[in-house]
Design goal:
By secondary structure, the protein is of the alpha+beta class. Helix content is 26%, strand content 24%. The longest helix is centred in the C-terminal third of the chain and has 20 residues. The protein binds a DNA duplex through loops.
DNA sequence: CCGCCAGCCTGAAGGC
DNA sequence: TGCCTTCAGGCTGGCG
């Protein structure tokens, strides 16, 4: 499931191959999407050089020379793969570059998004404009986080999962982060001190940078743009570790349902 | 306004 | 073996 490190890993891969490239043609295969993409939305990018790539929270954006852009969100099971053949399963759309190679967007569960729009409209798109600070940005500071936590009655885990609070984290990295800062996932957000918020911001960035270095986490079917798996799953402390001994204290890791999501933590290291 | 939760979607895995 | 249920989970829209 692509969270920030997985999206960044895909971007890093695409960048190497596609800067300066052009798409000669495209084909929309799957139209039954939450945001169905129309051919006329994508046409402006044809035969335009790709000038840059950007990750915006969990979104990937390709910028073209004429001021247009492609916006992708991978949802749960989305993949962006560079390939020399088009025989992939669950293809949503494909883009042909020179020399018969393709950028293929596939997504089994179809929670993903593909949009074509002018650069200037990206920040104002309803999907983008509500997002909170990017988890790796300077904007995501101890003061920023602490202010948000102070104002909320919610549990810390629910806050960190909310993209309007901080954008880029998902279930895996939130569980891992809470273990690293020794916080119980049900801790009330507003009881968290400024110092703790500061520690959380520092640890979030460390965790994400390390995960990017490991090419992300492959839990179910995540692969990077070359079709390869990530390696951060071998460094999980709590995620998917139910009934296994804690790496710090040997207490068995527990799984609970919180907000209808599996939540993993060490009941000894992460007390309420 | 805020918080919670069903629903979207499909394949894998577990229970009986 | 096979059917049924549950789970995975980012995100939205609707409800209280």
């Amino acid at each position: 499931m692509p969270e920030l490190p997985e999206v960044q890993t895909i971007i890093n891969g695409l960048k190497k191959q596609l800067i300066g490239a052009k798409f000669e043609s495209f084909k929309i295969i799957q139209k039954k999407m939450r945001y169905p993409v129309e051919a006329r939305q994508l046409e402006p990018i044809l035969n335009q050089s790709i000038v840059s790539f950007r990750r915006k929270e969990k979104y990937l954006i390709l910028y073209f020379a004429n001021g247009y852009s492609l916006l992708f969100h991978l949802g749960m099971s989305g993949k962006l793969i560079l390939s020399n053949h088009i025989k992939h399963s669950y293809v949503i759309a494909l883009f042909q570059t020179k020399g018969d190679s393709y950028l293929i967007f596939s997504d089994v569960r179809r929670f993903g998004v593909l949009l074509g729009l002018p650069d200037k409209e990206v920040s104002f798109h309803p999907l983008i404009k509500k997002l909170g600070a990017d988890a790796l940005s300077k904007e995501f500071s101890p003061t920023y986080l602490w202010k948000k936590l102070q104002r909320s009655k919610r549990a810390i885990k629910d806050m960190l999962m909310d993209q309007q609070v901080v954008a880029g984290l998902g279930n895996i990295y939130v569980c891992e982060l809470l273990f690293r800062v020794s916080l119980h996932p049900q801790t009330s957000a507003k009881t968290i001190s400024f110092d703790k918020s500061k520690q959380m911001v520092t640890e979030t960035k460390k965790l994400l940078r390390f995960a990017i270095q490991k090419q992300g986490s492959s839990v179910s079917d995540y692969v990077n743009s070359a079709g390869k798996k990530g390696g951060f799953q071998f460094f999980f402390s709590v995620y998917k570790k139910e009934k296994e001994p804690c790496v710090r204290c040997q207490t068995l890791i527990v799984r609970i349902k919180q907000n209808n999501r599996s939540t993993f933590f060490c009941p000894q290291c992460q007390k309420r």
